[in-house]
């Protein structure tokens, strides 16, 4: 008897993404996802209206911040408790049609977390700003030194087992969300994997790396998250199940 397909939900944090959101939603593979949650993170354009028109589950989270939006999306999913949750940016920089790659790694290799690596994949020239690449390299270096896990990217396109993620203790409400997940996964002994994904120039200007101030704030938050979480003694970075150096 064939195994039943997992119940998959997608969370899309969105702040002023009226131009890109329809492109993202149209590219999600048909029949693969049971629910799409769009978290309107204080948008001042038609993002919420477009999300509703497309039949998504709309969540309004006025507290600005990438982590705030992701946490609000996870809270909404408590009503249905999917098997897997996929995080996808709303700016059309990710390729939603590559979602099966992430889901296959979760199922076939029995992983808890799969991160889409733009570094290992096909990134369009200019899609990753120099400051973003530099910050990314420093962050994954610290993940290796402080947590004993090897990554190439903090890519936002990722998939995790929902029940386990809800027990992970995620708390960051701003720029540290992605690296917090990877660090906490290491401390919890999760089995993780990276898969190559494609990446293109986003529609519009980045709210983080598009400005010097945004880049500095993001970088400082990522670094502080890594050091403070490691110092807090939240678990053993050498626990079994995490891909080690």
Largest sheet: 7 strands, mixed
Number of helices in the DSSP assignment: 8
Low-confidence stretches: 235-245
CATH topology value: Spore Coat Polysaccharide Biosynthesis Protein SpsA, Chain A
Q: Count of DSSP E strands?
A: 7
Return the CATH architecture.
Alpha-Beta Complex
- What is the helix/strand order? EHEHEHEHEHEHHEH
What fraction of residues sit in β-strands? Answer: 5-15%
Radius of gyration: 17 Å
- Classified in CATH, the superfamily is Spore Coat Polysaccharide Biosynthesis Protein SpsA, Chain A
SSE-based structural type: alpha/beta
Can I get a quick summary?
The chain is an alpha/beta fold and 245 residues long. Helices cover 36% and strands 14% of the residues. It has one domain: Spore Coat Polysaccharide Biosynthesis Protein SpsA, Chain A.
Description:
It is a single chain. The chain is an alpha/beta fold. The chain has a single domain, classed as Spore Coat Polysaccharide Biosynthesis Protein SpsA, Chain A (Alpha-Beta Complex), CATH 3.90.550.10. The chain has eight helices and seven strands, in the order E-H-E-H-E-H-E-H-E-H-E-H-H-E-H. It has helices spanning 21-27, 47-53, 66-77, 99-108, 130-147, 162-165, 177-187, 212-231, and strands at 8-14, 35-40, 57-60, 84-87, 113-117, 158-161, 192-196. The protein has a seven-stranded mixed beta sheet, with helices on both faces. Strand 1, helix 1 and strand 2 form a beta-alpha-beta unit. Helix 5 (130-147) runs parallel beside helix 8 and helix 7 packs parallel to helix 8 (212-231). The longest helix is centred in the C-terminal third of the chain and has 20 residues, at 212-231. Residues 235-245 have low confidence and may be disordered.
